[in-house]
Please model this.
Amino acid sequence: MVNLKSKPRNKVVIGITGGIACGKSTFTRALAGCLNAKLVLDADKIGHQVLKDAGIKNKLCRVFGKGIFNAQHEVDRKKLGVMVFGDQVQRSKLEAVVHPWIIKRIAESVRKFRKSRGDARSGAAAIVDATLIFEVGMEKMFDIIIVVKAPQGVQVERIISRDSNGKMTKVMALKKIHAQMRLGVKVKRADIVVDGVKPVYPQAVKVAAKINLLYS
Model:
């Protein structure tokens, strides 16, 4: 990440991060549309793909045991989630296995994008939606980092409302929030900060205009 005032022209790679349930994905979709983004990556979706990789499954089996698999020998994400929830040691073990794979896939896609032809006016913007950009040291991969923020109370409400089983409690939601880097720290390290409570599209239009001005 470099100073906005000295950004290089033409292609731009944007990282969008923030806390859980702050509205990152919603803003990513809006900004991608405003910029006519050529590449949009969702780290969560890539994380789901990693669990289907044979090598990763073998590593996870060695770390967590065969109990994490279902009858089809696929990783049961709910079982794995229960094992690591609220347990920093187990969570760190999981991250040590899956994060390098996820980062590698994102880095490969970004490299291909940078080598491709085009400029910002023809849709040469790439956007990566990833919660852990700062935590895993990915910030140098991006030209601009946007942090989407929301009050903790809103985060809790959203986390609880997303739970289809109705078992999520306020205490559990807070544990999910506190398992991540403090949102205030991310805000201080951002190039651009977006409010995840205010209307999304007007903010996306303003951010896109700023980026187009810098990269056109």
